[in-house]
Amino acid sequence: MPKSVVSKASTVWNGDLFSGSGSTSLAGSGLGPFDVDWKARAEEGPGPRTSPEELIASAHATCFAMALSNGLAQNDTPPTRVDSSAEVSFVAGEGITGIALTVRAEVEGLSAEDFARLAEDAKANCPVSQALSVDITLDASLA
User: Fold this and answer.
1) Which secondary structure element, helix H or strand E, spans residue 71, and what is its range?
2) Is the pLDDT of residue 46 over 90?
3) 3-class DSSP state for residue 37?
4) Residue 136: pLDDT band with limits 50, 70, 90
5) Are 118 and 111 in contact (CB under 8 A)?
6) Rounded-to-integer distance, Cα 54 and Cα 34, Å
7) Cα(39)–Cα(108) distance, rounded to whole angstroms?
8) Average pLDDT estimate for 32-40
9) Nearest to 79 by CA among 110, 124, 116, 111
10) Of 129, 128, 74, 64, the residue nearest 102 (C-alpha)
11) Contact (Cβ atoms closer than 8 angstroms) between residue 104 and residue 85
């Protein structure tokens, strides 16, 4: 049985949703802290801060590229390069309304039809694609 790998991140939030702010850190890699606030989530624009949706987009683009790379290798057509991106759409009051994946890949000896089939399979079976439908547990207590 494969060993379970647990990835951890933590966030500290101060204040209410609209005027508050926080920071999130990635425990396994030690990256961060990254500033987070409502403005980064609900308004487009530059700034040295991130949002849950941007972190999901990064995770999805990475997971999809890895899944597609594996599928291509299993098809005996390993890629030279896979360039993927994800755009997560968020609407205040509605939540995440969609994710658009884009991929461009360099693969020798593969038809466009087979590439499309393998890309669709990677999209459907990438663990991040399936992540929001898993059982989520909660341990909540007042400090």
Assistant:
1) helix 52-74
2) no
3) strand
4) confident
5) no
6) 12
7) 44
8) 92
9) 110
10) 64
11) no
